[in-house]
Amino acid sequence: MRLLATWIINGLALLALPYLMHSVSIDSFVTALIVALVLGFVNAIIRPILLILTLPVTVLTLGLFIFIINGLMFWGVANLVDGFHVAGFWSAVGGALLYSVISWTLSTLLFKK
């Protein structure tokens, strides 16, 4: 049940993103749920591999390169899913950062223990 609630929270966070950033657009709530699902899979499968491969650069930049990785994955999902558009690379980096802040805030508010 918590997994389903987290998925819906991530979809709602994606729906809120175009209101805060005009360079990100999403067509519908169903598209937001699909994007949340694809982002979840990408973060679970591809992100750990990229983090290991780019570990020297990440250490050199004191962890700031992780923002670049997150932006690239966000931008890649935008290219994969129809109905989800990101204007460019820096929009993807900002969108990924804002998406994670919104998702974390909503999850914290809903899942207080």
Pick out its properties.
single chain, 113 residues, mainly alpha, two-stranded antiparallel sheet, 5 helices, globular
- Strand order, largest beta sheet: 1-2
Give Rg in angstroms.
14 Å
User: What order do the SSEs take from the amino end to the carboxyl end, as H and E?
Assistant: HEHHHEH
Query: How many domains would you count in the coordinates?
Result: 1
Give the amount of beta strand, in percent.
5-15%
**Helical stretch tally:** 5
Uncertain spans, ≥5 residues at pLDDT below 50? Answer: none
C-alpha end-to-end distance: 16 Å
**Overall form:** globular
What does this entry look like structurally?
- By secondary structure, this protein is mainly alpha-helical.
- It has one domain (2-110).
- It contains five helices and two strands; from the N terminus they run αβαααβα.
- It has helices at 2-20, 29-53, 55-60, 65-80, 89-110; strands at 24-26, 84-86.
- A two-stranded antiparallel ribbon has the order 1-2.
- The longest helix has 25 residues, at 29-53.
- It starts with a helix and ends with a helix.
